[in-house]
Every structure is written in C-alpha cells, then in structure tokens.
Amino acid sequence: KIIENGLLPYCWVVLKRDNLRRPRSLHHSSFPFGTLPTMSGYQQYGGRPSFPPPPPGGGGGGFPPPPPGGAPPPPPGAPGGFGRPAPPPGRPVGPPPPRAGPGGIPTSAMAGMRIAAPPPAVAPPGESQFRSNPGPPGGGRSAYAPPAGGPPQFSQPASQPPGQFRPVAPGAQFQQIPPRGGQFQQQPPPPPPGGQFHPPPGQFQPPPAPSQGGPGQHFRPGPHGAPSMPGAPMQGGHPGMQMTPGAQPQQQQQSANVDFSIQVPSRFLKFTVKKFPQSAGLAMACKVPTGGVIRPLAPLAEDSNEEGDGVDVVGPSPAGIVRCKSCRTYINPFVQWIENGRRWKCNICSILNDVPSAYFCHLDETGRRRDTDQRPELREAVVDYVAPPEYRVRLPQPPAYFFVIDVSLGAVQGGMLARCAEGIKKSLDELPGGDRAMIGFITHDSSVHYYVLKAGLASPQMLVVSDLQNLFVPAPEDLFVNLEDSREVVEAFLDSLPEMFAKNQIRESCLGPALKAACRVTQHIGGKMCIFQSAMPSLGDGALKFRENPRIMGTPDEYQMLRPANMWYKETSLEFSKAQVSVDMFLFPYHYIDAASLGELPRRTAGTLRTYPSFDSEVDGPRFVSELKHTLTRTTAFETVMRIRCTKGFKISNFYGNFHIRGTDLLALPNCTSDSVFGFDIVHDEQNGGGPVLTVQSALLYTSSEGERRIRVHTQAMPTTNLQNEVLENADTETILCMLSKQALDIAIKNSIDTARTKIQQVCIEIIRAAKGGGARQHGAGYPSQQGQEEKETPANLKLLPLYCLALLKNVTFRGGNDVHPDERVQARMDLACMWVPGSRHFIYPRMFSVHDMAAGVGNPVPEVSMGGRMPSVAGKDKIVLPKVVNLSAEMLNESAVFLVDNGVEMVLWVGRAVEASLLSGLFGITSTEGCSSVEMKLKKEGSDIAERLDSIVLALRESAGTVPKVCVVLEGDVNAESRFMWHMVEDRAAFQGGTYSYLEFMTLVNQGGSTARTGTPPIRSGTPNGMGMPPQGMRMPPQGM
Hints:
Elements: H1 8-18, E1 24-25, E2 116-117, E3 132-133, E4 143-144, E5 174-175, E6 220-221, E7 227-228, H2 251-256, E8 269-271, E9 276-277, H3 280-286, E10 291-294, E11 312-314, E12 336-338, E13 343-345, E14 352-354, H4 376-379, E15 382-386, E16 400-406, H5 409-413, H6 416-427, E17 438-444, E18 448-452, E19 461-465, E20 481-482, H7 487-500, H8 511-522, E21 527-533, H9 568-578, E22 581-587, H10 595-598, H11 600-604, E23 609-611, H12 617-633, E24 636-646, E25 650-656, E26 660-662, E27 666-673, E28 678-684, E29 693-703, E30 709-721, H13 724-729, H14 733-750, H15 753-773, E31 778-779, E32 783-784, H16 801-809, H17 822-833, H18 837-844, E33 847-850, E34 874-875, E35 880-881, E36 885-886, E37 898-902, E38 907-911, H19 917-924, H20 945-957, E39 967-971, H21 975-981, H22 999-1007
Parallel strand pairs: 9-30, 11-15, 16-17, 16-21, 21-22, 22-23, 38-39
Antiparallel strand pairs: 1-2, 3-4, 4-5, 6-7, 8-10, 10-28, 12-13, 13-14, 15-30, 17-18, 17-20, 18-19, 24-27, 24-29, 25-28, 26-27, 29-30, 31-32, 33-36, 33-37, 34-35, 37-38
C-alpha cells in the first residue's frame, strides 16, 4: 500500500532517520504524515515485538490524547492528500475515509492493526533523550525531537527550490502541520547534532516519487522537476509554515509576511514617523515624539469621485465579527494564517485563534486566503462593520438636537438671538436623521423658559419657571418632539423668538439651572446640545465670578486664568457624557466671560467651542450662521466610544482632544463628527521589546444618523528599525508639529505657558541635533556610538521643522506678553487641540497671499492643461487658482501692496497706504485711503474683476469647512489693528521673552544645539545658517502643497 500510494520515498526518509534501532508505535497522531492505513499481514517489523496499543482516546507516541468534542472533520471531497490529514486542535480523531487495501480488504476493517516502528536510538552522553513535545494546550499539532545520531547524508541540487522539505536549525523541534485545502504538507526533521548533515541554504527534496500513485494523489512538478507535495507552497513558502507554539520566528520573516502596501488613507490617520524605533533607547535618542493623529470619520477629498464616505461595509455573517480571543483585536489584513487557514495569529498580541467554521477558507499557494478579494476586512485597512445586537446597550436612539439659548439683554441687542433663530431654521432640512430627528428648546435669562411644541398646536406654548432652587420640568414628553411631526410649530417658534424677547431688559443669566433642566429632558435619548451664551452666568448653580486680572497676564501665573474656576461645569459635563449628550457651545462675549470654565462642557463631551467677541450681527452674522449650520448638518455619529490598540511591546500612553476617558483607554464620545480629531502617544512597553512590525488598530463603535450600529476599524502596520537615521529620515514634520502642539497644550495647563514654550524649543533643538549626528546603531542602553562620525546635513524632511516651531512659539496659544485676552487664548487652545494635521500647520504658519500682483488666471478655475505643465496651487471643488505665497515677514510689506493672510480661522487683508487708485476702486469702491480707517473699509464681492476673483479665492479657502469667512481689513498706519496683524509675521522678532528670535537667529540657535539659549539675547548674524531649512531666495516659506 505504501508503494501504491507513493509514500515509499517519504517513509524511507523517516525510517532511515530513526536508524531502525527500536520499535515504536506509529499512530496517526505521532506519524508525521497523518493517518497511514495499516497493511494486511504486516503487524510487526523485522520480527520485533510491537509496542502496546495506543491508550484509549488516541494519542500514542508519548502524546496526550486529543480532547473530546470539537468541530466536525473536514468535508469528504477535499482535494488531494495522503490519506486523511491530521486533525487540527480541538477536532476529534476519526477513521480515515474508506479505501480498499491490498487484497480488496477495506482499510476500515484494519482498524485494529498497527505498524511497529524501529526503536529510538539512545542519545550519546551529554545529549537529551528522545522526548515528545506535548503541543499546545487543548491538543492539536504534535511535534517530536529527533533522536541523536540522525539520518545519513543526502545529496541535494545546487539550487534547491523552497517550499518543499525545509531543514530546521539544530535544537529546534519538528512539527506536524495539518494540511491546507485537504492536501498534505510537511516540514522535515532537523539535521542531527554534530554536523552529520549539512544541506546548502534553502530546502531539500526527497527522492523522486514513483510515477504511479493511488487515488487521491496530486503531484505537481517543482521548479527543478522534482515532485512537490500536494498543496506545498512554491518559492518563498507561506505564513502557514510556522514553528511550534511558543517559538518566535525570525523578525525578518515576520516583516516579510506583512503587506505594507495596505495603508490607511492619510485623511484618516497620520503618524509622526513612518518607521518606528524598535527600542526605548533609540526612541529617546531620536527625540521625535512618537505617536499619531486620527480623524475617524474624515470626509472624502474635495476632488474625490467615490460615493458615500469611501469606506467598505462588512455586513452580518454567520461567523459574526471575528476578533482575537485575548486582546479583542478585529481581524485585519495583517494577521498570519497558519495550519492551512484553520487558525490565525493575532498581529497585536501574537495569540493563536481558531477560525470559526463559517469563516473558514482554504489558502492558495502563497498562504493567502482565496476569498481575500471578496472580504473587505482582509484587503482594506479601513472598514465599517454592521454591529450585531450584542454591541449595543439599548436600541439606537433617534438623532436629537436640543438648544439652550440665552435671551438676556446682550443677546437681544447684539443681534445674536435673531441670527441664532435664522441659523437653526436654515438647518432644519439638512439635519442628520431625516424624519427620525427630534428637537427641543429652552431659553433663559433670570428664569428658565420651556416650550411645548406638540404637534397640532397653533403656536408654541411657553412655560416659565422662576424658582431656580427647586427647579422642575413640566410636561417633559412635549418638550422633545419629532421634527417632522411638529415642523410647523417649530418654524413658528423660530420666527417669533426674536420678537418675543425684543423688549427684554434683564441682564442676568441662569445658565446652570437651564443646563440642569435640559439634562433632565434629554437624558433618556442623548444627542447634541447647542448652547448660545452672551453673558457670564450669574444666577443659580454654575454662577461664575469675574476673575480677569491684567496683572498676571503674561506672567507664569497666567495659567490660573486658563483653568476652570470651579468644578461644577466639569461635573455637569460628566453627567452629559454619561447620558450620551454632546455639547457645542457658542459664546458672544462683550467682556470677560470665563471661557476656561465654560469650555469644560464641550471639552469633556467631545464638542466644540466657538467664540465671537464683540459680536456684530452685520459683520459676524454670516460667519456665525454658516458655522452653526455646519455644526448641525455635518456627518455625526451618536453614542460613540473608541479604543486604540497597538502591538505587544508598545503601548498607547496619552490621548489628546475633546473626550472623557473611561477606565484607562476607552474614549467616551457622545458624538463623533467628521471634524473630530484625536492624538495619541505610542511608547515602548518596558516589559516587552518591540518587534519588527508595529500595528496600530483603532475601533470606533457608533450609531449612524440612520439608526444603524456600526464599528469603524482602522488598522495600520508599519516597520520598525534599530537605525537612528532611518527613524529621522522617515519623520513627518507636519504631523510632528501637530503632535507637539497638542502635547504643549497639556504642559501649558498643568504648568505654565513659559514651560510649554521651553519644551517646544527644546524638542526642536534635540530633533535637529539627533538628525545631524544620527545614523549609528544602538549600543548598550540604547544611545548611539558617535565615534568617528562627522556632523551631517539635516534631512530634507526636517529642514522646515525650526520654522514651524518658531511659528508655534509665537502663536496666540503660546505667545507671551499681556496683549492676549484669556478668553481668546482659551479659544485658540480649543481650536488647536481639535485640528487635523494640515489645519494645524496653517493655523501655526499662516499663508500670506499677494493680491496686488495677481496674474490673469488667478481666482478662476484652473484650466485643464496649465501653462508649462506645472499644476498651480488650487483650492475648492472648482480648483480655484490661488495667488503666490510670500514670507511671513514685515520685509515683504510695502505701501503699494495688498496681502491676504489666512490661518484657517480668520482672514486679514492688509492694505498699503499708497495702493493704486484702480485697485482700491475695484476692491473697496474708493480711490484713496486718506481719512479712512480700517473699520470703514468694506470689501466688495462683485462689481469688478479683481473683487470677484478675490471673493472666489476667499470662498474656496473655506469651502471644505462649509463656512463663510469673515475678512478683517487692516489699513497701514492703523496702530491698533496693525499691531495685531504683526502677530502673524512669525519670521520677525516678537516683543516677549522667548519670542525675540527672528527666523534666521532661531536657525542659528538650532544649528548650535541651543548653546546660545543661556545668554538671553539672540546673536545677530547675517547670511544663511549652514545646512538648515532656508529655501531658495523668494521662497523661504513651506511649499504650498505640503
């Protein structure tokens, strides 16, 4: 039967290795080729007595019997194979398929027969005796250590194809692997100690098999004509060929099995480095902040042609959502498939997981699942799972919108109330949720006003509660209504709201009691709450006191005004977060309003804060209405939580953004929008060393506006390195800047702004110093050996880092001096904490466009074929051509020029005193600036070619945000307005400690490694510092496309 089945050459290999010294039972769980049918009349080999029969339940050969139960055996029609393959872990051992043996006797009738093997040889002195490896817990794969003495030497072709028998290093263990696709594959025993067998690199072939074979055999020629095992891989092998459990494969093999071409789109996730340092010592030597920034629900690019959000959806399946049993990682393209697809190795914790039978699929010759192209979760780095019922605590709630509006004197007279009603009414048709959306209102001054919007009412009914101590909520079921059913009543209320309080003379505000009432109304549903406040809360719970102190502004004690005055708003925000309510706050202060205390509400509920100082309905109204509409109508996920995991050996240490942390790593996000951004640090785990691949996976569990529970999973795999220069040459300067700004925000709150500025400067100097002296392999404690090294030039990717860090030092968030209002600094801090990478770069280093010398095509859609084949800088869906960008230095300003500065939040148009009359007429409708002030100059939007093109540019720059920008005009010579405009000239010296460096002086400081930092006065030097980021003359700013 051995000859008939073509097993003779393989049996010969094994039997010769055992040297026929001692009989040993060959049972299917210890025989390396799976189940071998016994042969009629062949019970003892060589006349020697056989071993006793195997113990009950299988096993034999020193192996424990397989566990009872388990999954059913593979289906009978599996292609090819030698007999029946060895069962995978957890599967019962059954008889092989019926097959006629010699003489016509069915093999099933030979169940009691067994084959006795030669006895194992006794190990020489000093060597371990023959022993068996019990295999992984729960049974499954079996392995044994070969006896000393080993087989005779074999010859092998000079160039041996891989994927056949693979010799293992001495001391390793030999393992039986279940077949793939019902076919047979095997790894051979290792060469014996003592160097008896020395094959050349690669694998070796057994002697050629007979041409005839029994049924079920499928041989295919190898690359050199030798037969290969059925299902055996060709060149390179496949991930299914694994070592025994507990053995660690080589790092190069792990890295080679990862397809790094599968990437999370950069609109979702960006990392500070593309190759992570492999050790903590190397990370310390590189000085680069290691981490990432994620935008889970990022929209498609403006020029994208994809439908929806461009993310594939994985629907429900009988197998459910496949996850790691240990760390709960979601199945992803970077896991390793072993045992022919029956198990997979988690790429986060390295635990082996069984594949559910409903999810099983055979592997191809490269070890890739054959259904990979049909499963988005195995081919894409970003997928959306439709969550089964066990992923929800309650049924998905309808999208709910609740508005808490201040109707005190300041809100009415400034026009905020009218603009608020206008913005809400314009958004009703586009609110996410459609006919499921719910809506409600509360207004307040010195009392709380409820509004019954029940369907069928001719007009809304107002209920007033003046007792702020014993506040109660009347008729709560009628205060939160379905928008579609009560649309007429809601619109009637919004139309009458400004007139309802037109004569209100109350200046006080009871925001705290109003928030308590709103929480009671919304706590059973959750949703989004919008707060509109123009006066400092002064009555009831949450009342605040005036604490603005100009004496400490610009001093180390200024951080006191940037912290909450009390804990009431923090405690209230936690109640909102628990009730799944997110707060978006709009402030309209005419004096100090304590934004630091009020900002706790949006900060801990994943909301946003927007401030409109000295609100003017005519000037600021369009911007406020557009931003309110964008806030209400953008893509929003409800009842959201997010967790980020990374490979064993690394860990997530800190998070940045607006959220509340439950436990240690679960981000509670009542709402997550398309603008939500979160940062996180990745550090090395001291207990475990990093491997060759770092995998980061984020999972966002949310309810869509359509009421469907989903899980968005982002999985990114990156290589690691132990070379300092590779880490630094693969650093992303813009992402480093974004992460550094978020880290500095925490330092400014916990310590002081001066400490944050010192940290920014120190990190910049250390990164450049490491980049110029890096490239050494780590030794000892992880620090590089610098012997014999010369100072190198700064890598091109880091040359702009000093410019960005200098701009960050002078940004309104961190700049010194007493000219930054505390509320303004808080607003800048909230903006920077939630900014995406490109947005943070523009906010830190604004763009200054030259308007007075725009070419003819600027401000119009780009032509299909641009001049010279070079694509100009464009913005918006229509690809509006932008003007040229100049340096942020006062040297560029002259009296005949006009410049537009845009930092993503505000726009400023600087106008020289001697601008040509034709340009002034086209932009402002005047011919001279004599006798004009900055406030009096109104920018035209139409009526001339230059005005229309400039308006197209302004709108295109804000098109992605969906807002209408406010353009402030600054006339040269206007001291107050121009002094603030100079804040944007970050390449010049500033008048505060730590900001007295110009760009040229700061680069000199960085080049010298901070040696002049102790002098207190920057050196005055001329020329270009050697090797630093000075772009060519006339183009010292960062490239526009970065």
